[in-house]
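LOG
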Amino acid sequence: MNNLIKLNDVSLKKYNSLRLQAQAAYLYLPLNAEGLVEILKATQDKKQILLGRGSNVLLLKEYYDESNVFIVTTQMDDLKIEQGEIVAEAGVNLSALAWFSIEQSIDGYAFAEDIPGTIGGALVMNAGQYEYTIGQYVNWMDVFDKSTQSVSRIHPTPDFFQYRHSKLTSDQVVLRAGLKNVGGDDLENLEKILTYKRERYRKQPRNYPNAGSVFKRPSKNGVTYFVWKLLEEVGLRGYRVGDAEISFKHPGFIVNCGHATIADVTELIKICQSKVKEHFDLDLELEWKTLD
């Protein structure tokens, strides 16, 4: 069985949710966990860049040469109930997980329906919204360790997942995860999904491509600040550099209004950080992962 697809000289525009144009010499699509391991072993002499749906990432180069390998995991989408728990491959879409949980009358995953990412990426950064995060529901993870070139199973300790962070290292690549199966009411969970989705549609930009929240919430002297309020107060709502814009609808997002470039977005990030530092003495840390 063929476990992977390899592409050469590929535009990355459709593989990053900001829809920024860049070119990659090599791109792989693993079709299952075995294919991902095969790719990771075969390309260990190159810089390996894993993408799920390309959300929460910022490309920093217009061309990634042969020393780089992009790995897009979205074809790794096996999702099932096995031995009483949910087993999901790393490329499973979080929205698919939420709808699967409704179909199976499983409680707890409604929060994930409108988060634009995959299980693998969500586990690395402990993605979530409201009072829920994916880390709350993890029984185990199978990971490939690039330093030992081996697969192992992690059973996370209570402190393994923290706010927008996990103890997964840069050498550990998630292959699949076992998630909690807690009985629930499918109609009640459906109502939760619709409520969450309605709120996010009301508050967040949907008319232009974006990569999710740009910055983590900063803290100072025990006080945590909302990024959108800080950017509002320094007058950056709707501010543009080229076709990159601080969203008028929600200043916590940067959107691509048409043909934004990597340079447009990076300049806009610097302006946000500079203005907030100048006015509030707060450091804005990127929530996005940068790919250089």
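LOG (cont.) second protein
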Amino acid sequence: MSAVTVPDIPVALSTSSAYPENCAAAFSLAERLGYDAVEVMVWTDPVTQEAGALKALTEHHGIPVVSIHAPTLLISQRVWGTDPWDKVDRSLALAAEVGAETVVVHPPFRWQREYAAGFVDGVALRENDTGLRIAVENMYPWRARTTRRSRPIEAYLPHWDPVPHPFDHVTLDLSHASTAHSDVMDMADQLGHRLTHVHLADGSGSVFDEHLVPGRGNQPCGAFLELLVESGYAGAVVAEVNTRKLDPERRELDLAEALAFARLHLDPVLEVSP
């Protein structure tokens, strides 16, 4: 007699994976390639900021929004103004309107001292008030090149690694882990149930955040996905792959490969019993 355990782990496409194409193009790609959902990176593209437009895309393509990525990146510092808590609050409101349960945020930058000082408590308070998950993403130390070596710069507060801090929900990004030279398997083990969101990409350990197609770097992407299945992970896996220098045909092939990789390693686990 056989028992098949099917992991309920949706594989989503980040709209950032379609850049420089827009949000609407990302939804079209997700539907055409067979992704389960989309993560919306809030960006200068007005569609990413407007619930009505996003709901129209979900209805047209039959693709739900699983998460909203708040505009807390260095290059999106002026999207929705410069007040970091306002960015988080507007992202939460947008998530609620489109039916997403998770908002992804980066740790505060070191120069955002007031925001950083209240970050842990502010995240917990907003989760309690909204019932949504704020999944704090792992980052990496910046490195300044000197004549002799690459010197790390601590750019984030309380730290670029959220694992040892008291966040209830964490996003684990495998490309960021590669740049930080972190062990993703150990991070997942330490996080346990606090690991609630995953950005799937690969890296070679470069000082640059590469976001390679999984399987093209040296991260244990396959083993990590299999660990998610074995551990009963209940979140989403979001393909966040850098395709910005590719033509549309090559971009589609890379995103199809990323999805195939995820499907392969999130396959049902077959247990055979007498």
